[in-house]
């Protein structure tokens, strides 16, 4: 808001003066509201938390997909190079891991908050793939 010099008239009539006062009130109200919004730390923090949570969820899904793809490729590469007895032991270990994963999923269902359960399939698949790959690599190193 700029103000005219004091020696110049600001309004030609009372009606113009009223309009200017009303406009100034409106501008002042907008300014006060903007300042109040900036000062409302709790709301700003909540909005930021929501944005961060959404961004983290998107990143987690992206990483989960990448991890699954990489783990599958790695497992396939390792599987091609393993001798048959090791493959059989690996299959048995994988079956045991699947059973443990099913038990872990049941515990997860019983105890995890609802928001976290929404991504459980991706998390379990990634963890299972990493576990199988680790077991296969470990067995190959023990030969």
TrEMBL record:
Residues 1-25, 53-103 are annotated as: Disordered. Keywords: Membrane, Transmembrane, Transmembrane helix. It holds the Pfam family DUF3618. The chain crosses the membrane at residues 121-137. InterPro entries: DUF3618. It comes from the Bacteria. Residues 76-87 have a biased composition (Basic and acidic residues). Coiled coil: none annotated. This is DUF3618 domain-containing protein. It comes from Streptomyces qaidamensis. The lineage of its organism: Bacteria, Bacillati, Actinomycetota, Actinomycetes, Kitasatosporales.
């Amino acid at each position: 808001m700029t103000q005219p010099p004091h020696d110049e008239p600001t309004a030609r009539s009372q009606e113009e003066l009223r309009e200017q006062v009303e406009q100034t009130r409106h501008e002042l109200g907008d300014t006060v509201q903007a300042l109040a919004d900036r000062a409302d730390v709790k709301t700003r923090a909540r909005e930021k938390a929501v944005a961060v949570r959404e961004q983290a969820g998107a990143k987690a899904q992206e990483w989960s997909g990448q991890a699954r793809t990489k783990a599958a490729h790695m497992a396939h590469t390792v599987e091609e190079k393993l001798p048959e007895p090791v493959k059989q032991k690996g299959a048995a270990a994988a079956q045991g891991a699947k059973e443990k994963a099913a038990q872990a999923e049941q515990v997860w269902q019983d105890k995890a908050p609802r928001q976290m359960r929404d991504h459980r399939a991706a998390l379990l698949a990634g963890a299972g793939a990493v576990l199988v790959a680790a077991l296969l690599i470990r067995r190959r190193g023990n030969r």
